[in-house]
Design goal:
Strand content: 5-15%
Largest sheet: 5 strands, antiparallel
Oligomer: single chain
Shape: globular
Helix content: 40-55%
Amino acid sequence: MSDALLAPPAVDVLPESAGIALEHDFADRLPELSVPWRAFHPEEPRLLVWNDALAEELGIDSGRFTGSARVRFLLGNALPQGSGPVAQAYAGHQFGGYSPRLGDGRALLLGEMRDSSGRLRDLHLKGSGRTPFARADGFAALGPMLREYLMGEAMAALGVPTTRALGVVATGRRMPRDGELLDGAVLARVASSHLRVGSFQFARGLSDPGALTRLADYAIERHAPELAEAPNRYAALLDAVIAAQARLVAHWVLIGFVHGVMNTDNMTISGETIDYGPCAFIDAFDPAASFSSIDLQRRYAYGNQPSIALWNLTRFAETLLPLLDPDVDVAKSMAVSSLDRFGALYNDAWTAGMREKLGLAGSASHASGDDGAFAELTAEMLTDLQRHRIDYTSFFRALGRAAEGDLGPLDAVLPRTDGSGAWVQRWLDAGPDAAAMDRMNPIYIPRNHLVEEALAAADEGDLAPFSSLVDVLSRPFEEQAGRERYERPAPEGGPAHVTFCGT
């Protein structure tokens, strides 16, 4: 790599007519947690994807913000006057092992934007070149950046808290990856913030204890301002993050999503899903499902996600101990009490979501508080799903048809032998609401074989399959005529699906 690629290039000033404003609140208030830096400047970039809906949320007028100005903005090469892009510093446990200094090795926080409701949103790049935190060349391949765009839009449409992408730009550069030369790209990501558990781990490791206090206060201000006047606002912050993560992971499990790399630097304080690297959706229901090529021990398997979330939150609680109470034993006791609530919070969120998936959220059994019977029914159902390797997503749509009185689709996938399906009549007797089920259970998800098909086509220069898939996934609960192939699972007998981190 040439020295020119390592040196931060100049940044052009975006004209005021673009109507873009960027703040640099994080960089100003927490200078210990970032390094001023600039994105690399590709010679022949090309816009691949622009998110009109998200742009509108951010108050960007797509009609007048076009051409090279849009492209160079998405690359971080042309920014509003006074912008101060930084590479963020954070630590993290990666697959259980602690790294005290990770940070944005190939990414930049361009700043914060005020969306149409006045809320502060981060604008962050991936693949924008090496920074002082880099552990590789600092660039990103096209496929993983398109995957992150697609996954963020799909999760948002499914109602899951998530980061989203404003756009993807091809850099015109080729880079070596596993013996191949792949097209490069930069993704511009929007998030409520990029504060992570790893951010707190890094701050706790600094010699200045005031940095941790200011980071915690900043997190409260950004994500839970109502806690500022709480008797112990840091204990309240811990409780809020635990609750947000319990809800998020319950969302994941309910839709069959496997994040794949739940390191502490990939867990946000906001409770948004972040970093769609080796992620995937299950086809057949299997708690042991793991797709990541680097998760050799299946640490982040589908069924492990709640326990890993609690493990990560325990690391977060450890960082807050000095703020919870001057007495270490008291602080530890407070942290343990908060962490002990995670199990009930997760179970409540998962149970409420599963009641909705089964059309029983307003049933008489729910009103009477018969949680034991519901737990028994769902345990039997999930056992049947796993035993017969039934496709998770299409199964719930078949249940919806059964709730309408048409048992054909359900009988086609669920054998009624060896005790299987004994729970079905009990479920029907509870009076499931078919219309409510259809509002909760998607027809379309980012099925792994379709995602790979779209990304492979994009690598060959054809973005049509990618665009079609994004369009289908934007309306996951709505039947779309002529698009039946998007609802079917992968053909049987194919190779096991494997995902890669994309670095």
